[in-house]
Write a structure and sequence with these properties.
This protein is α+β, with helices and mostly antiparallel strands. Helix content is 42%, strand content 10%. The longest helix is centred in the first third of the chain and has 17 residues, at 19-35. It is found in: Endomembrane system.
Amino acid sequence: YDVNAIVDRLLQFLEMEKDHVTAETLVLIKDLLRKYPQWSQDCIAVVGSISSKNVQEPKAKAALIWMLGEYAQDMADAPYILESLIDNWEEEDSAEVRLHLLTATMKCFFRRPPETQKALGEALAAGIADFHQDVHDRALFYYRLLQHNISIAERVVNPPKQAVSVFADTQSGEIKDRIFDEFNSLSVVYQKPSYMFTDKDHRGPFEFSDELGNLSIGESADSVVPVQVVGANDKDLLLSTSEKEESGASGNNGVAYSTPVHDGSSGPLVALDTQPVVQAPQATMAIDDLLGLSFSAPAPAASQPAPPPLKLNAKAVMDPGTFQQKWRQLPISLSQELPMAPQAIAALTTPQSLLRHMQGYAIHCIASGGQAPNFKYFFFAQKAEEPSTFLVECIVNTSSCKAQ
């Protein structure tokens, strides 16, 4: 697409001088400049002529303030516009605007300190006294940074930036899930899973690779039962996105274990808005036998008959690309959280024994990874008599002794 034509059209919208059009256009220009910073000179020349008094919509005002801070050296009146906005701090209802105002004033101070010093002092004082916790915390953080070292504060608040390549709303669901799994970490700051910004030497004993098919458990691939390629099938079942184990008992050629009955359709096994399926005690207890991890089981429900056994293909086949494609497309059919005995947690210190045990029941590991206390395993299994497959994600927390 023609970025030049897009910029020209956006600037024409600004020249219409209609408040609602100006508001929406400012938000779009901010995003455009984050992705195409080379167009800043063309945009800032027009944006600088807009009166902040005519911009009332919070997101638009935040976008304008962002540009005042980001391009303060190119906008002659930037310090004075920011100062006038700070003077009206008490009348500003949007916490988002006040947060942007703090950051923009800091950036402007680093570029034009004599003109911004007074405004920055007023902004920090107002922010520290602000009733909104996020605004208060950011103002206090900036104040302490400046107290510690102005050069370090500049590196933190206004580091060299790279153009944005992907916006959050276009980020894949898989990446967002991985970031959420690593919530209490720098993944949230960088908006990337840790494997995308961490050196391999620092990923711990379980390197969770970019490709699901790359096993990284410290043992050669020769020790793992090989898997071949299989095509996608409409009857494939996605068992969950946070451990979904089916119940099991071993067979000889095909492996049998108890599971909820499936009618062969492509819909989910369990609807999330309906009553959960009550399984027989044999189905729950069989999880212990299948995994060999001593899961505790609830008291048996005497009246429920056991579902018919499901035979699995001992030579199930799937490649990583097919696994990833199915994982994104298929609905969740079952999700469980199960307690684990301490001896089961101790057994996970040698994960290869777990993987070989699962392969003995025709359940294959296609990828694994994680660091203590959270370890993640991706398994797949295939029916013995038809090409339907089960995709399973197992997350083990060794500190809480639970598996999801």
